Amino acid sequence: MTNSELAIALFEACRERGIMLATAESCTGGMIIAALTDIAGSSAVVDRGFITYSNEAKMDMLGVRAATLDVHGAVSREAAIEMAAGALARSRAGLALAVTGIAGPGGGSREKPVGLVWFGVAVNGRPVTAERKLFADNGRDFIRQETVHHALEIGLQALVESQAAGFLP
């Protein structure tokens, strides 16, 4: 599926369940929420998008703890979890997607190479989850587009799993 098709599928899944959605985006700079707001009628599903590129924005807007960033860094499981939880808590959403990663071309290291992205998913009533992906270093645009694609996929997956577990209508 293309990113546009995935965005439509996630939009429809949220609309059918009466769920609002929020994003907390760092390396994508708002591309996930943009994919969703490209859809006519998106206000029925999209509550808000937090673009938290800097550590200060992550702390101020989402409540990510300074200690988390100091100990684990912005590109970490812990930061992704706190970003997703913060977006859920600071919105009217029932589903929040968070992404934080290194899109390159610089900024990578041996421990955290270019292409590393952490995804956080928060659904009302469920523990926040995180997932690590390492995308090929095929350029900044490639990494960002793949991040959007995967975020939309795991958003859909979270809705299906949450509904099956009885957390959503």
TrEMBL record:
Instruction: Tell me which residues make up the CinA C-terminal domain.
Output: 5-154
Q: Pfam families given for it? A: CinA (PF02464)
Cited NCBIfam families: PncC_domain
Q: What is the designated name of this protein?
A: Competence/damage-inducible protein CinA-like protein
Taxonomic lineage per UniProt? Bacteria, Pseudomonadati, Pseudomonadota, Alphaproteobacteria, Hyphomicrobiales
